Amino acid sequence: MFLTVEGVEGAGKSTFIGLLEDALKAQGADVLRTREPGGCALGQQIRPLLLAASQKMDRRAELFLFLADRAQHVAEVIRPALAHGQWVICDRYADSTIAYQGYGRGMDVEALQQLNDHATDGLWPDITFLLDLPVEVGLERALTRNGREGLTQSEGRFEAETLVFHQRIREGFLTRAARWPERFCVLDATRSPEELLQSALQYLKSV
Ligand code: T5A
Description:
Strand content: 5-15%
Bound molecules: P1-(5'-adenosyl)P5-(5'-thymidyl)pentaphosphate
Number of strands: 5
Structural class: alpha/beta
């Protein structure tokens, strides 16, 4: 089973994935937790290029770095894990490219859909949990966490974008969820992590 978790900055994806991973393991599932960018050795080299706040980058260069990360990640980590019967939970995947580079940066959404098909050789998630919340709430959470953990400059390039940019991304995710309701489970991420987990487990039981 291939699960992805998506949302705007600070939506609580990492926190949610930690709880979901533990709950699935407690039920006996063999779970692999991974993330993008940076879920494979090549991706770990690409990640700092993409996220450093000081890095200036053309949007096409940015797009192809995300796609290169994803292509290697799928080939080296995700497909082999699925072939071994593991549950894969991935923190961000192709929907992030379409939300951020498409709706956020204004690149052609249908072209990005095809480029993702190409990069992943057609691998889309079975289920995508979209943690949805107002972007102001998510950014505030992310900034508080970054301040606490001293991550202000090393990984802050997207968090430094305007509020309008992040609002376009939220709308982009919701547009995709409406287009593929059979794949997306939209969760109200203003609720507590434990409430989100319970909703997700209930959803997984129902599919
Ligand atoms: N990107 C990524 C693209 O542009 N295109 C792409 O194709 C891909 C794959 C990746 C960046 O790259 C962009 C999107 C991103 O900007 P990242 O460093 O991997 O960046 O970080 P993000 O995925 O954006 O994750 P965030 O750093 O925003 O955080 P999370 O994981 O959503 O949130 P989390 O769990 O760390 O929580 C944030 C804070 O909120 C608290 C936590 O304790 C923490 O302090 N919290 C809650 N508080 C209240 N209620 C809840 N339910 C909470 N859940 C967590």
